[in-house]
Structures are given as structure tokens and as C-alpha cells.
Write a structure and sequence with these properties.
With 253 residues, the protein is of the alpha+beta class. The chain is built from 12 helices and 10 strands. A 7-stranded antiparallel beta sheet has the order 4-10-9-8-7-6-5. Strand 9 and strand 10 form a beta hairpin. Helix 1 packs antiparallel against helix 4 and helix 8 crosses helix 9. The longest helix has 14 residues. It starts with a helix and ends with a helix.
């Protein structure tokens, strides 16, 4: 959290985040063209944002593209806001939506756990329900097999195919949300879970791409809350009790 606050203290870095908020997935050259400073100086600011977890980069061909990662801001909200006043917390639930843009989104979080335990949390129905507000996932977890996410009080939420299954490091899935008719009319997108061991912890990157330009923000807007719940469950054995998590989880969570 200290790195996050230090990164946000600089106006240039805040401006860079604003640029990525306006148009996510920009190259260094594109970002540098908008600032009255050298390309090297902009690269240094981006490196500090990446170290704080506020920006995630992804190489595509010869270019390295930069994406806004709202997960640390969600963690700041959970740690310092929700426990003091539910009214403010309820209002800030929409913060993640304001910081996200469609087409392609990347989310990064570090969790003190093992790759095997993290994989089990993602794929086990009972554990998934603990951090995804009562939603359970069912699949045999083989490449080409179907999967389905459902909630006892709602019914089907998401369905798709396991495109790539490489435990405990990588899971690629097609993603078709079906929780209401309008959402179900959206086309199928793709979600990639990438796990990397870092010392006694894991770096988890969730990439949600192949979204249409006019994608409903509810398709991807819940990831920061889900990943916060995943981290909380694996590190403390407890579930999130923020107003937003209780609202989505209800009595079944």
C-alpha cells in the first residue's frame, strides 16, 4: 500500500493513469507523445506505477502495451474506507467501473500462497463460493471441456469452454455471461488466469479480452472485488464483509 500511495502522490503519474483510463492498452510512445518530457522520463514513471501494481504491461508483437490495474485501488478501499463508513463504501463500489475501459482488461494481484493452493481455489466449487460471493464453478478441468458458474439464489451466471488447462500455472477460458437476457446477448469473450510463483507468494494476472468495444461493463467490472475476496480468503481464511461483497453475495455467500 505504501508504494501505491507514493505512486499516486506524483501528478505526472496520476496523469498517466488518467490517460490509461481514457484509452487502455497504450504503448510507451503513445503515452510519451502526450507529455512535455522525454520518453525515458515517461518510462521511469510507468516503471514506478508497475512496481506499485497500478499498471500492468503486456507485450504484443514488438510493442509493450500498458493497462490500468484497479485492484490496488480496490484494496485501498477495502482496507481504509469500508470499515469506517458504509455510506462512503457503497458510493465507492462504482470506483472500479470508473477506472476500467472495455475491449481488453488486465488485473494483477499478489497473494501469499502456493501455486497449487491458488489453482485449487480457482477450480474447486466450495472454495470458489467463498470468494465469489456464493457462486460455484463446475467442470472436469480438461482442455476442451465445458465449465459453468452458478449461484443457488440466481441460477446460471457464466458458461464457456476450457481452452487451455495447465495446472497450476495457466487456465484460459471462453466466457459467456448468462445472468440476464441483455447480458446473454453480448458476444463470448475470453479470460486467462496466469499464475507465477514469486518467493513464498504468487503473482496472479487475470486478462479479460476479446470484449466488443461496446461491452457492458458488468461483464468485467467485478474482477477487482473477486480478486480481493480471493486474496482475503487464501491469506486469512475469512470472507470479505464490505458492503459491495455482501450486496453481491447475499445470504448464500
Amino acid at each position: 500500500m505504501e508504494q501505491v500511495f507514493k505512486a499516486l502522490a506524483d501528478s505526472t503519474r496520476r496523469d498517466l493513469l488518467d490517460e490509461l483510463f481514457q484509452r487502455d492498452g497504450q504503448s510507451l510512445n503513445a503515452l510519451a507523445s502526450r507529455f512535455a518530457m522525454t520518453r525515458v522520463a515517461v518510462a521511469k514513471h510507468l516503471r514506478l506505477l508497475e512496481e506499485a501494481g497500478l499498471v500492468v504491461s503486456h507485450r504484443r508483437g514488438r510493442q509493450r502495451l500498458h493497462f490500468l490495474n484497479p485492484v490496488p485501488i480496490r484494496l485501498v478501499h477495502d482496507r481504509w474506507v469500508s470499515k469506517y463508513t458504509e455510506t462512503w463504501a457503497a458510493g465507492l463500489v462504482d470506483l472500479k467501473r470508473q477506472l476500467e475501459a472495455p475491449v481488453e482488461k488486465m488485473f494483477e494481484i499478489f497473494i501469499r500462497t502456493t501455486p497449487q493452493r491458488l489453482w485449487q481455489a480457482i477450480t474447486d466449487p466450495d472454495t470458489r463460493a467463498r470468494f465469489q460471493f456464493g457462486a460455484r464453478v463446475e467442470s472436469d478441468w480438461t482442455t476442451g471441456s465445458p465449465y459453468r458458474v452458478s449461484h443457488e439464489g440466481v441460477g446460471g451466471l457464466i458458461e464457456g469452454e476450457n481452452l487451455e488447462v495447465d495446472p497450476p500455472w495457466r487456465l484460459v477460458q471462453s466466457y459467456h455471461a448468462i445472468w440476464d437476457d441483455d447480458i446473454a446477448a453480448q458476444r463470448t469473450s475470453r479470460v486467462t488466469w496466469q499464475i507465477e510463483q514469486v518467493g513464498d507468494s504468487c503473482r496472479l494476472v487475470v486478462r479479460h479480452d476479446q470484449l466488443p468495444a461496446d461491452a457492458d461493463e458488468h461483464l468485467y467490472g467485478g474482477w477487482p472485488m473477486i480478486l480481493s475476496g480471493l486474496k482475503t480468503w487464501l491469506e486469512t481464511g475469512t470472507e470479505l464483509t464490505t458492503p459491495g461483497s455482501l450486496m453481491y453475495g447475499g445470504e448464500s455467500s
